[in-house]
Specification:
By secondary structure, this protein is of the alpha/beta class. It contains 22 helices and 16 strands. The protein has helices at 2-11, 26-39, 45-55, 65-80, 155-163, 182-191, 203-206, 272-279, 355-373, 390-393, 395-403, 405-411, 436-443, 455-463, 491-497, 521-528, 533-551, 559-577, 579-583, 589-608, 655-662, 666-695, and strands at 84-106, 110-111, 135-136, 141-149, 172-176, 196-200, 228-229, 267-270, 307-328, 333-343, 380-387, 412-417, 426-431, 502-508, 641-643, 651-653. Residues 323-521 form the Peptidase M28 domain.
Length: 698
């Protein structure tokens, strides 16, 4: 059957069909298409390049004078385009590195230089204001101990060590970046009794094992380091000292010792040049299968004989940060908001992360303002939000959401995040399931600048390589699988705290200089997007998304797809835990029945929206949240999606249920199942309420 289906797709003639835009009807559909065609002619790659050049001129970490200059530049650009723009300040707890060192003390002594290499042709590598090797929120301290290699530092890696009879208690562990958020690595090391953590970038993961390294290619050279925060964002993001409420100047703050989100053991990143000298001085057993990295020797676990001394001292202060908020006001429903966001702070220059996204945001604002001069105007308000202190822990966006929570819950339609906008040429998106179809329609309207095919066609071909070789265009029935949102960027507070439907979009590619001084304008110009065509293309994608969401006759949300997705998650739980569930009295029959009912009403809602245009179906997303958050991490309110406690960035679906089961906490699992039944019942009732006058029910 599968072979026949594939052959059917290959010989099926591709028939051009009329453009479908969910959310628009009648003459408004034609008008929207006309406006979009006009919009697509406006964005200019050269403007994106010009903005990126300015934004990456200096290292600009959050709370620095250079960071303030970047915020003021963004504000001035918005105003020059005629947008209402303002800077919104918060006062948050940010450490800066002051005295950081690491040395090998056995079997011989070496004090390592914590400075990335310089390159004559790249002026940015010479700046004296670049932070040293730094994992933000590492506690101060000096520790000395033998070293144990722990692979990626995942919980299962420590379990493997226990099976081998190797303890890390009282030791300094060295882990490679990847597979989990660096803060999770610190948490797991702490839980297993380590007194310090070293994290390094292995050439297997983003160095020469991937391809040519800088300056011959885009991958990480031996001396480059990945800075980054180890803040426990899986507990809560935002300012550590004001959990759940905004960090205004006069806000009441908890003591740092009370902050669940602050790590407890000294942690620092190093380059693989330094890691090589530590790892090649480890003895003990050879590493298990899958633990060997890319350095040119057999890896051993230790402990010792390599012994390391680390010292970390930071300057801990309440520092001022600056969000920039600009708006294009809607003419019909001005209180309703479509929000486009990205951060502007960077660990160093941040050409890719985040300023490819910031340059896209600024050019999108210009393009829409130019379109307004031609007569276009949105029904709903569009907000452009440039967040500060994302790198430390999603701080600027979280504080703003906490401060504006009531208004957002009432009026926000959707949040679109574009952070690492361009690190390559391959389109990627993550979203809530209700917006999958919206994204598909969106990227069918924009063309890849190199191939001339739609972005949709290129993305579909990448996901279906086995059947797409002989197909020039995807069939009309083609679908794309999008990711689901965990954490790691500024959509987190919008979705996980406030229940606002969210999207994250980017172009991806070989990007080996993440969070190093080489993530700069030179790298972007020479190894990634030299003509800034993909920046321009992202402007087109985001601009049309904003136009559609702000101007549609009815909101293009698909909750049938959401129900199908949840049903799949339940099936996965039953598959994973099997007979164990029955033995503990855990049953999903009620949830499955409610999912079926949700599908029926969601399908009715889908059909009725075309007739009754004022239904605000975006609020159904809020029903997946509860004021009482997830067990042991109350800040996270969403019961379908959250960052996994031991993943950090990665998505945990049905987190209350899944995490309780994974921890063998069956009483909590039963409570979470009951709570989710109530959530589904609330969604059914809300859908019924939306449909009542339309179904003739009084």
């Amino acid at each position: 059957m599968r072979r026949k289906a594939i052959l059917f797709f290959i010989i099926l003639p591709i028939v051009a069909s009329a453009q479908i835009l969910t959310g628009f009807i009648g003459g408004n559909l034609e008008k929207q298409i006309e406006w979009e065609q006009k919009f697509l002619k406006i964005p200019k790659a050269s403007n994106c390049e010009r903005h990126l050049f300015v934004l990456t001129e200096e290292p600009h970490p959050a709370g620095s004078e250079a960071g303030y200059k970047v915020a003021e530049y963004i504000d001035s650009v918005f105003k020059s385009y005629g947008l209402n723009s303002k800077i919104v300040d918060y006062w948050v707890y940010l450490p800066y590195p002051q005295d950081v060192s690491i040395e090998l003390v056995q079997p011989y002594k070496v004090k390592f230089e914590l400075k990335e290499p310089t390159w004559l042709w790249d002026k940015d590598t010479y700046d004296d204001n670049i932070f040293t090797f730094f994992n933000a929120y590492s506690p101060d301290g000096e520790v000395e101990a033998q070293v144990v290699y722990v692979n990626y530092g995942l919980p299962e890696d420590y379990e493997k060590l226990k099976e081998m009879g190797i303890s890390v208690k009282g030791k300094i562990v060295i882990a490679r970046y990847g597979k989990s958020f660096r803060g999770v690595k610190a948490k797991v090391a702490e839980e297993n009794g380590a007194i310090g953590l070293i994290i390094y970038s292995d050439p297997m993961d983003d160095g020469y094992m991937k391809g040519d390294v800088y300056p011959r290619g885009p991958w990480r050279p031996e001396g480059a380091v990945q800075r980054g925060s180890i803040y426990y964002m899986f507990e809560y993001p935002g300012d550590p000292l004001t959990p759940g409420y905004p960090a205004t100047k006069e806000a009441k703050r908890i003591a740092p010792e009370q902050a669940k989100s602050l790590p407890r053991i000294p942690t620092m990143p190093i380059s693989y040049k330094i890691a090589k000298e530590i790892l090649e001085n480890l003895s003990g057993p050879n590493v298990p299968e899958g633990w060997q990295g890319g350095l040119p020797f057999a890896y051993h676990i230790g402990p010792g004989p390599a012994k390391v001394k680390m010292r970390i001292k930071s300057e801990w202060k309440i520092r001022q940060i600056k969000n920039v908020i600009a708006e294009i006001r809607g003419y019909e429903e001005p209180d309703k908001k479509i929000i486009f966001g990205n951060h502007h702070d960077a660990w160093v220059y941040g050409a890719v992360d985040p300023n490819s996204g910031t340059s896209v945001m600024l050019e999108t604002a210009r393009a829409l303002s130019e379109l307004m001069k031609q007569g276009w105007k949105p029904k709903r308000t569009i907000l452009f939000c440039a967040w500060d202190a994302e790198e430390y822990g999603l701080i600027g966006s979280t504080e703003w959401v906490e401060e504006n929570y009531d208004d957002l819950v009432k009026n926000a339609i959707a949040y679109i995040n574009v952070d690492v906008a361009v690190s390559g040429k391959d389109f990627s998106a993550s979203s809530v399931p209700s917006l999958d179809r919206f994204i598909e329609e969106l990227i069918k309207s924009v063309v890849d600048p190199e191939t001339g095919n739609t972005i949709f066609a290129e993305a579909w071909k990448r996901q279906n390589k086995s059947i797409s070789k002989n197909i020039s265009n995807p069939p009309d029935t083609a679908r794309i699988k999008f990711g689901r949102l965990g954490s790691g960027s500024d959509y987190t507070a919008f979705l996980d705290f406030a229940g606002i439907p969210s999207i994250d979009m980017r172009f991806t590619g070989p990007y080996g200089v993440y969070h190093s001084q080489l993530d700069n304008f030179y790298w972007m110009k020479n190894f990634c997007d030299p003509d800034f065509k993909y920046h321009e293309t992202m402007v087109k994608i985001v601009g049309i998304a904003l136009m559609r969401l702000s101007s549609c006759d009815y909101l293009p949300f698909d909750y049938v797809n959401y129900a199908n997705e949840i049903e799949g998650y339940i099936n996965e739980i039953e598959k994973d835990y099997g007979d164990l569930l029955k033995g503990k009295g855990i049953d999903f029959t009620n949830i499955k029945e409610k999912i079926k009912t949700m599908k029926l009403y969601a399908d009715s809602l889908k059909m009725k929206q075309r007739t009754f245009l004022t239904l605000d179906v975006s609020k159904l997303e809020r029903k997946f949240t509860r004021k009482v958050g997830l067990p042991n991490r109350n800040w996270y309110k969403h019961r379908v999606y959250a960052p996994g406690y031991y993943l950090g960035y990665g998505t945990q679906v049905l987190p209350g249920i899944n995490e309780a089961l994974s921890f063998n906490n069956f009483d909590v699992a039963l409570k979470e199942i009951k709570l989710f039944e109530e959530i589904l019942e609330d969604i059914i009732k809300e859908t019924q309420n939306l449909l009542k006058p339309k179904l003739g029910v009084k």
